[in-house]
Backbone:
């Protein structure tokens, strides 16, 4: 019975797409504390939400991925997240995330607006984790940066829902609540998950490190973001 219970406790979680959340054991994991595993789990959740958002944006705004010659939204998403496989050496790590986020709304911007938006969010998100992809007992994560990133994401979500071009059309189509059409609130839910992920980890780190988070808000009208 004990063996059976142990096997059940160690069983990985299967996702809707058939993948599993359990990671294989490695010697490097022996140098990680419990909090390091928690940080990595939250970072994976953050990136999963960003990837889901990128695909949703491309499907709702197909003209954007075609600007860079991609044949499918999936191909465009794969290119966007490719740098994360070797983030320490990626040139995208040097991007100015604030500028990239503003590019998505600039009236004179002719490039892929979804790419600009998602590159800005990925760069900002990774910066909130100290630009690390592995965390060990001596690794430090700043709860203030996590908190600030959550507030910035709230501002971006507001901008997505409200930014319109000179013709009055949404710059980037996302949620849909038009009468007579299928309602789509999946963007709002994914942004909510993303914000909750960052906020929850910020509170965990604050409690563990005794570092008090200074609350703040973003000026959404001028898109003045909180620093990361």
Residues:
């Amino acid at each position: 019975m004990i063996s059976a219970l142990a096997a059940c406790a160690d069983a990985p979680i299967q996702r809707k797409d058939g993948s599993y959340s359990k990671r294989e054991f490695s010697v490097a994991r022996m140098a990680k504390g419990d909090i390091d595993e928690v940080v990595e789990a939250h970072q994976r959740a953050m990136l999963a939400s960003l990837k889901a958002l990128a695909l949703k944006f491309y499907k709702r705004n197909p003209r954007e991925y075609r600007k860079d010659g991609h044949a499918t939204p999936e191909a465009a998403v794969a290119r966007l997240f490719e740098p994360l496989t070797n983030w320490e050496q990626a040139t995208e790590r040097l991007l100015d995330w604030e500028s990239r986020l503003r590019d998505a709304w600039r009236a004179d911007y002719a490039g892929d607006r979804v790419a600009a938006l998602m590159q800005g969010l990925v760069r900002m998100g990774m910066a909130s984790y100290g630009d690390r992809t592995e965390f060990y007992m001596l690794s430090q994560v700043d709860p203030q940066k996590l908190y600030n990133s959550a507030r910035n994401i709230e501002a971006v979500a507001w901008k997505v829902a409200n930014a319109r071009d000179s013709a009055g059309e949404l710059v980037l189509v996302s949620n849909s609540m038009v009468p007579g059409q299928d309602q789509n609130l999946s963007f709002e839910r994914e942004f909510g998950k993303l914000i909750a992920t960052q906020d929850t980890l910020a509170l965990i780190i604050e409690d563990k490190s005794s570092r008090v988070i200074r609350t703040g808000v973003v000026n959404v009208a001028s898109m003045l973001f909180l620093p990361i």
Residues 1-9 have pLDDT under 50 and may be disordered. Residues 19 and 209 are 34 Å apart (CA to CA). The chain has one domain: 30-209.
